[in-house]
Amino acid sequence: MDISHIIDDLNDAQREAVTADDTHALILAGAGSGKTRVLVHRIAWITQVLNFSPYNIMAVTFTNKAANEMRGRIESLIGQQANGLTMGTFHGIAYRILRQHYQEAGLSKDFQILDADDQKRVVKRLLKSMELDENQWPHKQIVAFINGEKEEGRRPHHIDATQNPYLAKMVQVYLAYEELCQRSGLVDFAELLLRAHELWLKNPTVLAHYQARFKHILVDEFQDTNSLQYAWLRVLVGASSKLFVVGDDDQSIYGWRGAKVENIRQFDQDFADVKTVRLEQNYRSTETILKAANGLIANNESRMGKELWSAGEQGDLIKIYEAFNEMDEANYVCNQIENWSENGGARSEIAVLYRSNAQSRILEQALMQAQIPYRVYGGLRFYDRAEIKDVLAYLRLIVSRDDDAAFERIYNHPPRGIGQKTADTIREAAKNQNISLWQAANKLVKTGLTARAKTSVQGFIDLMEAMAESIIDHSLEDQFIKVVSQSGLQEHFEKDRSEQGKGRLENIDELINAASQFKSSHEQKSIEVAETEEQVFVRSVSNSPEVINEDGNTILLAPTFDNPLAEFLAQAALEAGERQADAWESSVQLMTMHSAKGLEFPLVFMIGVEEGLFPSQQSIEEVSRLEEERRLAYVGITRAEKQLMITYASRRRLHGQEFFPLPSRFIKEIPAECVEQVRLAGSANPAFSGYSDSEARFGLSSKQNETGFTIGEAVFHQKFGDGTVLATEGSGEHARIQVNFNHAGAKWLVTAYANLQKK
Fold it and tell me: 422-443: string of b/e by CB count within 10 Å (b at 16+)?
């Protein structure tokens, strides 16, 4: 038999994995090492050389997309002989088995699958029927609890809650949920696996049938399996079937959703005679990028060990850019994207990776201003996110009570007892009288509602009026903070302890940052000039659109706005409505580090690589979590094919406060010979403004420009006090200088009028 087409195009390690004897095998496949190729060719080897029928093979993936891709490649390799192969996700295969054995599994013949949204709705109805206050028992937290227990293989009766009243109530809800699903013929995703696992355990005859059928079981991304998936596989494999798993413990980044990296680490202990093969030749990245990744991940102690290498070019050094703040960081990324495009590169070849979704807001703003089309991969644009729309809807209703869209979004969010029937009554009254929903609600609380409905609607009206009153004469930032708190949204989202809930709170914090920076942008549009003995020249844009110079001439500045909140809401609406090019091939890709797994790009940016952000503050004190964060950084680095640029800011606004973060330990763990520090002319770090040797510290040019001042130079202003020069622009009478004052913050001054003194 000619088997050359199966193994001839494989490297030595790949060939060793594909041609392994009829045994258990663990393939440690490094990033970009051809793991899918190995799986496809292994299936071909099993059918063509080991002479097993495709009917005897099960291949498990984590996504339907991966399954379809693999099936297509197998069919291209061995043609029609692939017919009969069982391939799919864990949940997809479990579903098919349960359909065949619904009676043995204790299911109705026509059982239906609950998707994630349906599951949440079912739990919400259940909580209502049990008369449980959702403010105390949030449905998202209940869903997470139920799914988590199922993924650990635990039914309600397995959980000991005798000493914990809170847990006891959660178990009671879990039990009621199970009874409701059984009664209604409903099965959620976690139930598919748990029910299929119990099918094996409770029905030896059914188990024996599938053990006899599936003699070879192959699993992709094995490092991402959870406890239940691994248990399901171990029972199915039994004593005679062979398990061939492909994975990379260095890319295990989903511990927060139940994945157990321990599964791949203990594989050779749980199975006898395991053949282990390491795939270390990388076909994706330059040798420099791989050396950086190896140096970083070597700092994780609990790893199985491998060293990526490439037969390709050495490649460019990794660029490390220290930004002044997050806006400078975003502008740097935009400039580098434009350089890439000007040199013939496509925008679709570029990915910008960040640790938290909230980081995308500043970046999106900069890209839009630079007219660079982008897409948020696997997520929503910042102003399209539900929690952002929620906050803005409260603010819109404060600005205009007749905003029906805002009213519709928040009248019962968070839940405040305004039911569908009451809402329909308000809508009908508004329609019949041709008035807004707000006006209709105010009329109906006087007459036309039941006592209970009247109390709920009046409570909402009073809340809105109280919030509107409380934010008068406050800064834009404080207005947002008050509304987020008083509306109940903050408390509502804090109850969701999942990673998704945490992300929503981070996004809301970033919205507050946007409000703060919006205010600052107005202040920075002003041209502030120094006071003299004869005349006051300091004039703010917020007070006047013009400044009178010493000659009595008027200098027209930026337009004014009577209501900064209304202006912010208008800008947010415009940004949300801004439609970038839909063509994937013409857009820069923005995504979280987690979303980037499995993807590759010629140019990759990793932004916000700072202590407390990446690694996250919560992971720093716990070794296992810190190691997962480091694996995430490893994944980010190995997405880059040709060029990698890493940025961090010396000053960043987070959670409504200014921070001066340190560069991430992950940057320091990259071998020094792999990186080059990038410094743009005119950059400085205000966090170190007190250093007399600031020029040497930051490698700043000592060349003076037309302003007569040097970046990083210490100066004194009669009104604002001591400060440090951050930037200069313009020439002649239009020359301006930006100074970070120790007490007054950063301000732009007209050099001709500033009367700054050098220190």
Answer: bbebbeebbeeeeebbbbbbbb
pLDDT at 663: 93
Task: Return all residues near 182 (Cβ < 8 A) that are at least 6 apart.
Answer: 106
Q: Is 221 a catalytic residue?
A: yes
How many domains are there within the chain?
Answer: 5
Both tokens of 444, joined, read 């109906």
Catalytic position from the list 42, 504, 639, 747: 639
Angle of helix 499-525 versus helix 386-399 axis, rounded to 10: 50
528/674 same-domain check: no
Catalytic-labelled residue, pool 134, 188, 191, 221? 221
431 is a catalytic site residue = no
Q: Indicate which CATH number applies to the domain containing 179.
A: 1.10.10.160
In a domain, 653, yes or no: yes
Q: What is the CATH number of the domain that holds 493?
A: 1.10.486
Q: pLDDT under 50 in the chain at which residues?
A: 520-561, 579-583, 681-704
CB 689 within 8 A of CB 700: no
Q: One of 149, 151, 220, 477 is an active-site residue; which one?
A: 220
Q: 555 and 482: one domain?
A: yes
Q: What is the pLDDT of residue 500?
A: 78
| 160 class by beta-carbon count within 10 Å (0-12 exposed, 13-18 middle, 19+ buried) | exposed
Same structural domain, 98 and 199: yes
Active site residue 220: yes
Q: Is residue 434 part of a domain?
A: no
Phi, psi (rounded to 5 degrees) for 365: -60, -45
Q: Please identify which residue in the block is written with the tokens 């890319």.
A: 251
628 and 567 inside one domain: no
> For this structure, is 639 an active site residue?
yes
For residue 673, the enclosing domain spans 318-373+580-678
Q: Active-site residue among 35, 42, 409, 652?
A: 35
Q: What are the pLDDT digits (tens) for 56-88?
A: 999 999 888 888 888 888 888 887 767 888 998
**414 upstream amide cis, omega within 30 of 0:** yes
Same-domain status, 139 and 98: no
